[in-house]
Write a structure and sequence with these properties.
By secondary structure, this protein is mostly helical. Helices cover about 65% and strands about 5% of the residues. It has a two-stranded antiparallel sheet. This is Centrosomal protein.
Amino acid sequence: MSILWEKSETWRWMVRKSRDSKPFFLAFATVCGVIPGIIGYAVMQATNSRNEQLEAQLRRKARPDTLMMGQTNRERLAEFLGELERKEDTNDRYVAALRGETLTRKPYVRIQPIPKDIDNNTNTSTQANKVETKQLPKK
């Protein structure tokens, strides 16, 4: 900033004017905020492609892994919205997420907690294998 202050008379004039005049400061701040906003909006409108043919072409050229991820995301979203609609308890989803797990399962099958009465002599890998799943009734 000192380079601007030392070398530019225009910059010094703007700083003095902004410091001394509140209306000039508000006008300058408005110009500095509004003009970039207008330019950004114009660029977004110019580059926004809502062309149906272009979207169809991009969908035809999509890689198989992209299509598979899209299908998986649609299935997960449908399952999640179904659970919300049926007002099911989804706390186990959050517990699994806190453990770093992802609930990838068949629809309507929930992860159950590990039973507390397992003998302490068994190792943790066999405990993880003993996790039960429960089939919820379909409504």
